[in-house]
Amino acid sequence: MADSDKQGANGGAPDAQGDVNRRDFLNEITFAALGMAAMGSAVVTYRYLSPNVLFEPPTKFRAGSPDLYPINTVTYLPEQQVYIVRTPDGFYAVSAVCTHLGCITQWKPEADQIACPCHGSKFKPDGVKIEGPAPAPLPHFLITLTLDGELQVDKLETVKINQAFKV
Amino acid sequence: MATTFHDALSRLRKTRVWKSIFRRGPALTNRTRSLAVFGNLFLHFLPVKVREKSLRVRATYYLGSISFLLFVILSITGVLLMFYYHPAVPQAYRDMKDLRFVVSNGVFLRNLHRLAAQLMVLAVFMHLFHVFYRGGYKPPHEFNWVVGVILLLVTLFLSYTGYLLPWDQLAFWAITVGTNIISAMPVLGKYVRFQLLGGNLVGENALLRFYVLHCVVLPLAAVLFIAVHFWRVQKDGGLTAKGEDGRKED
Amino acid sequence: MDEKKTSHETGFSSHARKNPQRIVFITRKTSAKVKGEIPGQVMAYPHLLLREAIAFQVLVIAIVLLALVWDAPLEQLANPLVTPNPAKAPWYFLGLQELLHYFAPLVAGILIPTLVVIALVVIPYFNINVEGEPMWSSNAARHLRLLLAVSAALEIFLGLFRAWTVFVPTAVIDALAIYSYFVPPTASGFGRYVRNRAVSWWVMTWFICVAVVLTVVGTFFRGPGWTWVWPWRGHAG
Fold it and tell me: Per the CB < 8 Å rule, is B2 touching A44?
């Protein structure tokens, strides 16, 4: 034990270039083992902390029959925060979440605008920005038709702004 | 490959950032080794030098260290478990099922926590008995012994409050029996029970109070008393120190 | 002439009256106590700290291995209307629960635990514990009479309350203590060891024995209704 108090003692000098002495070798093995254990613990902890079951509302939802939505109307679905916009070109599922900081916008039919109450951003019914601090237009979600003829919106898939869903 | 690791490490050690954190350099002389312990916030509870005899397994069986290390393990596993636990009735029980069936490694983590808890109670008792039989309570260590008894009570209370949290039959009735015993205390019994349960029955108030006690109040108390306990050992001259009258304890 | 010469050369004069000198006497009591280097010490870093790190890792490995095989229990949802039979406390309180079987809640639940805690706390403040002299080293006969009187009273009390799980270990320790009185001074091994034990040793050993027996009985030998069961005869627990 006493020799470890001497400054700079090592477990034998390396014999040649690139060879490692016993002390350094054992140190490296120890750190490698500890490193593996630490990484393993980190991975296990990360997986533990990632929930496997979420109690959040589903991101794919049905919006009912296309006939529910007259042409040239904007219908707000409050549980999903989506506007179903029907123009002569077809359907758009426009997100009601303002692209600025995430507030829920409001449809103003008298002004023909979607307005955000937080910082005053204004959008056209197709989501294109008119004014305000919002950096981007409101995104459009993918619409499909189910086998029994209902509209289905998938909030995880976005489509181009000018891409209408034709029934 | 070995030398590049070495070179990388020694280059890292020469950087300004490293030197600003580890200001005294590698602990290769007795002076820097002293400073590594003395100058460190976490380590200065320990003495700079220790008697070689106290390092032997048979001296203490490391029971005190084991108790403390188990406390550390319990803190870490406990915090992780807190991420999935709601102290509400009956959500708490659902969360236990969640941990068992749904959460990745939930069973393992809960087992770790419960096992460490049982072992800590055992270790603390064994530490107490061992210190007694070695005469470690003799002057000047009297007050440290008292602090140790306080820590024993904190440990038992921690284990008891944690016992209720799963909110299953085992938990509920163990705590019911325990709190009914408390109400047998003369004069104060009913009031103490009322405060502990936040009511007259073991219900949602009791669960929340036990949760706060278990996760905040008692761990804080434990940390404070552990700090005093370590500090006292250091100030009294370290482990296997001779008593005031020069009498040897071992 | 001489004085002048000496004071010139050395700066000191030896004429007591003309040039009185001050002399300091250093006695044992007034000397500054210097603590010498305590022998047998090593640096905390690395010797203590690396050992602690190893202890931590060994502990973690042991606990991880155990946690992989031993599952924590989870019974049904808490139901205030249905009490399971038996309703057992955690193991460290089972000794107390066994005591509750014999004595009223005030005694077994409040009085005895409080007395135990107080007894633990005051241990270092009693000279008999600090000195730790063997029980038989002085006034052996008188101590024996005291031991017999106290244990007889205790056993009668326990017998009256039919607290057999406390009675039996107390009797065993009493027997051991009485045996140690009769061990000759020339004995070796266990006899000699037990002969030289202090009063504090006997009291603590008695306490540990009783606590262990109570806990073991409470864990394995008590079934529904807190009735006595033999664990190997298969019961629902």
Answer: no
